[in-house]
Amino acid sequence: MTIFEKSNYPLIDVRRHLETGPIVLVSSAWKGETNIMTMGWHMMMQFSPALFGCYIWAGNHSYDLIRNSQECVINIPTIDLASQVVAVGNSTGDKIDKFSEFGLTPVKSDMVNAPLIKECYANFECQLSDSNLVGEYGLFIWEVVMAHVAISVRNPKTLHYRGQGEFMVAGDKISFREDFKPQNL
Amino acid sequence: MTIFEKSNYPLIDVRRHLETGPIVLVSSAWKGETNIMTMGWHMMMQFSPALFGCYIWAGNHSYDLIRNSQECVINIPTIDLASQVVAVGNSTGDKIDKFSEFGLTPVKSDMVNAPLIKECYANFECQLSDSNLVGEYGLFIWEVVMAHVAISVRNPKTLHYRGQGEFMVAGDKISFREDFKPQNL
Predict the structure, then answer these.
(1) Are A185 and B164 an interchain contact pair (Cβ–Cβ within 8 Å)?
(2) Would the pLDDT of A95 be above 90?
(3) Beta strand residue intervals within chain A, DSSP E
(4) Average pLDDT over all residues of chain B
(5) Pairing of strands B166-175, B159-163
(6) CB contacts, 8 Å: B22 with chain A
(7) DSSP code of residue B120
(8) Is B185–A179 a contact, with Cβ atoms under 8 angstroms apart?
(9) Of A162, A135, A158, whose CA–CA distance to A74 is shortest?
């Protein structure tokens, strides 16, 4: 397992890791209990403050932990964690401790109680910004308040869910930087 | 340029093409004018009816066309359209006709007035489902009402924006189908 050396990362650049649409692991904590869930339905919503929206189904065991604590950490796994991602998504936290069961390591966050997942190359600490849409759409709007990224990972092999148990793995990076207007970069 | 043979596609499976987080081209029409914009901030929100949320900045020329018509088409480009994607995203429809300027072909939709983009392997016709969040968050919630997909494209080389003019190109597909619980597929 790769051990990542992570730095504090500019919040304005969080979109560089989330806009590509990776499957993420959401870690949460409430009253001494922690849990992890997989999530693929999410989007950036604002640069600064960095807002991030996601859909969480009320049937998930994490739902109550997240709703009560109003916090979570968005962790981005890469292909070396694929089997853990699948296992986390196909088990429920009311029966097992997913951290110990799947060999994932909780690390203390700086600004929220939910733990970071050490084995993920990027971790974004989030505080709930708006819960008005949770009831109707299951839509949580988060402010990313602290970001930790292993910047040595230049082209993360993230996982992108295609349904039916299939993932697309992030491929090559191509740059069109010279074709962009400066204000669009 | 590949000419795709597209079929009507089950709406329940739209997520298989959008959940991976590709850059999309949004086509719109209002009072005889059409336009195209690039978009990367979007997410699935419901399976059935298929709901899809996206952020559209009020400064985009497409914003008024979309807001007034309450319709759009979400078109998914692949890497062979990369230069067009960049050109569309770095120009404004108040000065040019992006279809003719960038060699993209408008095709009549079945259920909305906005045209499909022929050169994209997948086109999703959308009607506005909820505009309550447009004011505060620029968040449009769409119902996908008709889907056209070239199902011969098994592993579309979609583009995923990393910021700074860089894209990740969709890579290999891997299956963990046998590790999923049937109800999670």
Answers:
(1) yes
(2) no
(3) 7-8, 24-30, 33-39, 42-46, 51-55, 71-76, 106-107, 116-117, 122-130, 139-149, 159-163, 166-175
(4) 96
(5) antiparallel
(6) 21
(7) S
(8) no
(9) A158
Looking at residue A185, its pLDDT comes to 85
Q: Give Cα B11 to chain centroid, integer Å.
A: 14
pTM of the model: 0.97
Is the peptide bond between A49 and the residue preceding it cis, with omega within 30 degrees of 0? Answer: yes
Model pLDDT, residue B16: 97
Q: Find tokens 């807002």 and name the residue.
A: A51
pLDDT at A97: 96
| Contact (Cβ atoms closer than 8 angstroms) between residue A120 and residue A75 | yes
Q: Using CA coordinates, name the residue in chain A closest to B39.
A: A19
Name the residue facing A169 among B40, B157, B171 (closest C-beta).
B171
Least confident of A36-40, A124-128, B50-54, B180-184: B180-184
ipTM of this predicted complex? 0.96
- Which of B44, B168, B177 to probe the A interface (max A CBs under 10 A)? B168
Q: What is the pLDDT of residues B62-84, one digit of tens each?
A: 999 999 999 999 999 999 999 99
Which chain A residue lies closest to B134 (C-alpha atoms)? Answer: A45
Of the candidates A133, A157, A176, which has its C-beta nearest B165's C-beta?
A: A176
Closest CB to A162 among B16, B43, B139? B16
Distance set, CA A36 to CA A28, A53, A89 (Å) = 7, 18, 9
Q: Over the stretch B150-173, which tens digit does the pLDDT of each residue have? A: 999 999 999 999 999 999 999 999
Region A166-176 average pLDDT = 97
Residue A60 phi, psi (nearest 5): -70, 140
Does a cis peptide bond (omega within 30 degrees of 0) precede residue A106? no
> Nearest by CB to A19, which of B15, B161, B174?
B161
B91 vs A17: CA distance, rounded Å: 25
Question: What is the DSSP secondary structure assignment for residue A27, as one 8-state letter?
Answer: E
* One-letter amino acid for residue B99 of the chain: F
Which of A51, A151, A160 would you mutate first to test chain B, the one with the most B CBs within 10 A? A160
Residue B1 has pLDDT above 90, yes or no: no
